[in-house]
Amino acid sequence: MIWFWLQSILFPHPSIFIRTMSAIAFISLAYCGYSEVRGKHLQYSKFWNVNPQKKKTILKEVTVSGRTGMLILYTPAFLAGISSFAIFPDQGLRFILVATALSIHFFKRDLEVLFVHKYSGRMVLDSVIPITLSYFISTASLIYAQHLTQGIPEPAVDLKYVGVALFLVGIGGNFYHHFILSRLRGKDDHGYKIPKGVMFNLVICPHYLFEILGFVGISFISQTVYSFSFLMGTIMYLMGRSYATRKWYLSKFENFPKEVKCLIPFLF
User: Fold this and answer.
1) By the 8 A CB rule, do 231 and 219 touch?
2) Least confident of 43-57, 72-86, 119-133
């Protein structure tokens, strides 16, 4: 029954390349989420270098400022999004919506890096590069998978307009909670505080919850095998990352409210 349901909402994809990339996207993201739970964090996290031995190691590695590192992470993916309009012209409304949503997503991230976020540390360049490639390849694959649907009959169930609405709610909620996080620190304050207000009263990572909602929106707009595989992998990764974030707060703050969950209000 699940198979027939998937057939009604997804474009058929005969491309072996897209099927392979779909599997790689899901497995790699899910593994990153599992690694976060185990305590092996990506090296742009506030809790990746809590080990004193790692702090000694970082002094021997090439680092960049947090702001520069984040710009390096997101800008190539943004450029992939906007350049797709020239590379694949006249692709139809669904393609335009997917490419526009991805471009907006990473443009918003760049704007937040420049004008919203505050930084308390540096980033290891050797870690910035593979993460940057991951964002770029994922964005390019989402766009290319959409290009390959040209000429293929539309799915029986059209989700693209529902997807646009979900994307807008997701990106708006993500930005708002990022803004709340940025307001926790003063100009010269580099410490961490327990975030409070709106969804932070229910979960410690509402910005991840809304990011997932945004990618649900992109997947509904796209309706490709790759977009749904990427979505499921993203959910697994952000579940692991939110679990690690809550664990970090519990270790740093004795007064952290135990009723505040990781990602899903009242459940997880």
Assistant:
1) yes
2) 43-57
